[in-house]
Prior knowledge:
By secondary structure, the protein is an alpha/beta fold. It folds into two domains: 8-97 and 161-196 and 329-359, 2-Layer Sandwich (Nucleotidyltransferase, domain 5); 214-327, Nucleotidyltransferase, domain 5, CATH 3.30.420.40. Helices cover 34% and strands 27% of the residues. Helix 8 links the parallel strand 12 and strand 13. Helix 1 (70-81) packs across helix 3 (161-173). Residues 1-27 have low confidence and may be disordered.
Amino acid sequence: MKIQIQKLSALASKSLSFLLDQSAPENQVKRQIGLNIGRSSLTACEVSFNGEQLILERVIHKELIKNKPLENQIKDLVQEAKFESKQVNASLKGQGIVVRFLSFPKMNRADFASSIQFEAEKYLPFTISEVVIDYHIFESPTVGGGESADTMQVILVAARKTDVNKLIELAQAAELKLKAVDLDLSALVNAFEHSNPELKGRSLALIDFGAVDSTLAILEKGRLAFSRDIAFGGHDLAEILRRKLNISEEEAFKIEHGPQAAHADQLIVIQESLERLLHEVKSSFNYYYNQNQNASAVETVYVSGGFSQLSMLKEALEKQIELPVKTWDPTSQLTIKDTVDKEALKALIPYLPVSIGLAIRP
C-alpha cells in the first residue's frame, strides 16, 4: 500500500486509491475531474496542471432529480459539462465511513502495517471483512504536546466495501476512469489548505453545512485533530419550515435560500430550528477541548456548503461559539479559464470545496 500523504490534505486521505487498478500513473495526469456526489446535488470541477499552476477549466452543479437513477444523472452531468478528461477523483462520506484518532505504542511502519490489520476491528462498528482500511502516522508530536516518547498518533480510516464498489460502478457507468477514492473530509481540508496558504500552522475550524448533514473539522497547527458529522442540514430546516408554517417545499426552499426571511414568524421558526445544530457544534468544540486539554484555542471558523448561505446562520453561529465565522473561496488560488462563466461561478462558491479538493489532488 502506497501512502501519499504529505500535506494537511492528507489527513486520512491516503486515498484508498490502492483499491483501483485502473489508475494511470500520476505523472501522466495532465487534467482531472473532482466529482462530489452529494445528498441533494452533484458538483464537478475539471482542473488542469501546468507546472505549479492549477487551472480551473470547467465547473458544473446540478440538483439531484428524485426517482431518476443516480448513474444516469452523473452520466448526463458529464456529458453536459463536456469535460476533456476522463480521469476522476470521487469521495465518500456518511455512515459507511469511520475516522478514528488513536494512539499506539511507537513502532516502525512495517510492524504497524502488519498489526493494524488485526487491531483495527476493535475500533470499528464493522467487521474487518466488510471494510477497507487506511491510516496516517503523524511524524510530529501529538496535538497539545501530550504525546510521550513511547507513543505515536494515528488517524485510522475505514470505508465499507459496498460503498467503495458502488462509487466504482457509478464512475464506470458515466464512462469515467476512477483514479482515486477519497473522503469528503479530506477533500474539504485539501481545498482549504490550497486556497489559504497563509493560514497554515494556525488553529482553526472548518464547517461544511450540507443538505443532510454538516461536517466539522478542527485543524491544530497544520494537523487534522478532530472531525465530526452532525446530522442536521438544509433539508431538515426546509422540512421544519414546511411543517410548522404549512407551506410548500418550494416556499420553504425560497425562505431558506433567500437574502432574509420575510416575516417574523418565519424568523422564529428558523431560530428555533437552528438551536439543535448550534448546540451540537458547541458540544463538539467542548468535547474536543476536554479530550485535548493542552490544545491551542481555535481562532476562527470557516464555513462552506449550500446551507451556509442561510443569512441567519453565520451570525447565530458566532453568537453560540463566541468565535469569528468567515466564508472562504476554494478557487482563490486557481487560474480561472475563460471556459468558466465567472459570474455564475460566484454563486457556486459555497458548493465547490469538496469537488475542488478532489480535482487538485496530486
